[in-house]
Write a sequence for this structure.
């Protein structure tokens, strides 16, 4: 269980993480979704004590990370960028990490096998491909068989087979009752991997909850209507609680009514329709609308501030 | 996709592996593995010993070919007492790289995530670097003696029963240990390889020359000269100065000098430890 309370990180004038409060529960995969630069990596670094919060606090299983006596058994983390010396072999990199916690060589060999690095484990890491480096990072994260797993963009640089492997692995680990916190800037990736979602934009939590719920709440519900008598249709639809935006000659975008409701209303009044298309956006649209509204909200606010 | 109600009833994770608490001996073991799994460590060890042996051989050869009427008898003590000046360059680089190499590659994040209390990491590096540099110094002088002995002959070679000569053996080790630690401390402070090496070598090799030039401007520099890190520290690794020139700065005794030198080293390491705790990795 990860609990963040009013967690804030400022670098000079920039606020990377702006008072976020959230809980990541065990037993499910929690996705941490946000565009690049939204504060995902900074938040994750603060959880494992690499960055110190400007204010606020974050605990893992009830304690700040640094206060755990055996931290790698509590939290395994794959953070952004390589955290490996290129002159060292994968095996020696893991061996040194294992030594700090008295983890036996047997376990080092085990995670090397688990991540499919057997054939390259004695080679220097400097020559690793992006995908191999990512696998090594995951090997280091699971080394201590941790209760909580934090993975920052784990599928970056992996081939499709690797992506599938990560997905299966994290879901398996979560089913075992572990806490899995995994970041991505891709909604489609999260929809396939995560149970719960935490959406962050500009350092603030924009949405949190089960994936389906968030997708549903942000799903685009506009309907595109083409009619030769569009003017009449506008009056008709606005009378019944819908918002209507003319988008071209005879073309309307209707918000607040389903395509079925629009079709029936038009038929009842004898208005012919040439097209009736639900724009029901993709996941990426939903995500864009989430983060976009955050941007809009911000700029509107600053506009008001500058006026007053 | 599992529903929320289901997942909250998930069993506690069945961990098959028991991880032990992080202790200093474990961190030391980890740092030992890290040190000896990099090629640069082997290169610096080799370079240190080669440099010391080469200097000893050159000094020995120079001593034997000096014209007999020049008044300078072949001096075996000088042959084994100068190697440190070249070895210190390599040892300073080694001490620096051990920490800046972690920062420049990002490896430090793995290390500090494993040991979030951080200071034990620096302490373990310090123990290893001090021990390795000490051994290099002692072995280097021993090898220097071995190569200079046949060149100089038993009459001119350093006299092993002389306490002054005995001091050179472990004194060189002690000085190099301090140099390695100074490199480590400055490396941990600056976290940047080129900057840290430049700073460390500047302090060890150029600061004394700079102060020598400034002596002409003020007596203060003359009085300060013996207390510089290099001039103070080197005393333990060099033959005793018997004649002081009039007006020249008075060198400290070997032990006083070493104590002054180590005070600088401790200061650098303490500042590094403090910043290591505070800074973001």
């Amino acid at each position: 269980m990860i609990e963040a309370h009013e967690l804030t990180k400022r670098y000079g004038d920039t606020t990377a993480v702006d008072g976020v409060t959230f809980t990541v529960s065990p037993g499910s995969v929690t996705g941490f979704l946000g565009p690049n630069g939204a504060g995902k990596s900074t938040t994750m670094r603060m959880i494992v004590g690499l960055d110190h919060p400007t204010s606020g606090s974050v605990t893992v299983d009830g304690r700040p990370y640094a206060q755990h006596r055996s931290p790698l058994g509590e939290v395994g983390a794959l953070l952004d960028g390589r955290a490996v010396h290129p002159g060292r072999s994968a095996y020696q990199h893991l061996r040194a990490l294992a030594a700090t916690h008295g983890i036996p060589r047997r376990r080092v060999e085990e995670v090397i096998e688990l991540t499919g690095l057997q054939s390259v484990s004695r080679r220097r890491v400097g020559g690793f491909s992006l995908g191999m480096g990512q696998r090594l990072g995951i090997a280091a994260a699971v080394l201590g068989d941790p209760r909580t797993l934090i993975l920052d963009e784990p599928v970056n640089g992996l081939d499709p087979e690797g992506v599938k492997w990560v997905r299966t692995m994290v879901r398996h680990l979560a089913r075992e009752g572990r806490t899995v916190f995994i970041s991505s800037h891709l909604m489609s990736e999260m929809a396939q991997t995560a149970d719960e979602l935490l959406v962050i934009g500009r350092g603030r939590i924009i949405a949190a909850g089960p994936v389906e719920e968030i997708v549903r709440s942000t799903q685009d519900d506009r309907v595109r209507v083409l009619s030769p008598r569009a003017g009449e249709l506008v009056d008709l639809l606005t009378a019944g609680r819908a918002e209507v935006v003319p988008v071209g000659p005879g073309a309307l975008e209707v918000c607040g009514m389903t395509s079925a409701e629009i079709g029936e209303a038009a038929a009842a009044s004898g208005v012919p329709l040439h097209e009736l298309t639900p724009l029901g956006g993709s996941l990426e649209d939903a995500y864009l609308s989430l983060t976009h509204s955050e941007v809009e909200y911000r700029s509107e606010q600053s506009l008001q501030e500058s006026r007053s | 996709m599992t529903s929320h109600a289901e997942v909250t009833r998930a069993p506690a994770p069945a961990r098959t592996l028991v991880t032990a608490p992080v202790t200093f001996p474990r961190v030391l073991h980890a740092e030992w593995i890290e040190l000896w799994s990099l090629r640069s460590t082997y290169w610096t060890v080799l370079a240190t010993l080669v440099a010391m042996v080469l200097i000893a051989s050159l000094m020995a050869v120079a001593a034997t070919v000096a014209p007999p009427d020049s008044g300078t008898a072949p001096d075996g003590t000088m042959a084994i007492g100068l190697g440190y000046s070249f070895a210190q360059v390599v040892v300073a680089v080694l001490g620096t790289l051990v920490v800046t190499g972690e920062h420049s590659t990002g490896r430090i994040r793995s290390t500090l995530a494993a040991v979030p209390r951080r200071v034990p990491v620096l302490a373990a590096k310090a123990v290893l670097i001090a021990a390795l540099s000490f051994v290099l110094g002692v072995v280097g002088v021993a090898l220097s003696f071995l190569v200079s002995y046949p060149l100089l002959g038993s009459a001119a070679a350093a006299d092993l029963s002389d306490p002054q000569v005995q001091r050179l053996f472990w004194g060189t080790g002690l000085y190099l240990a301090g140099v390695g630690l100074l490199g480590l401390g400055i490396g941990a402070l600056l976290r940047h390889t080129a900057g840290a090496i430049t700073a460390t070598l500047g302090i060890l090799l150029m600061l004394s020359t700079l102060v020598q030039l400034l002596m002409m401007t003020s007596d203060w520099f003359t009085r300060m000269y013996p207390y510089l890190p290099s001039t103070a520290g080197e005393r333990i690794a060099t033959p005793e100065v018997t004649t002081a020139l009039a007006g020249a700065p008075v060198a400290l005794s070997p032990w006083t000098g070493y104590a002054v030198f180590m005070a600088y080293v401790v200061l650098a390491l303490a500042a590094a430890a403090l910043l290591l705790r505070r800074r973001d990795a």
Q: What stands out?
A: Residues 22-278 of chain B form one domain. Chain B has one domain: 22-278.
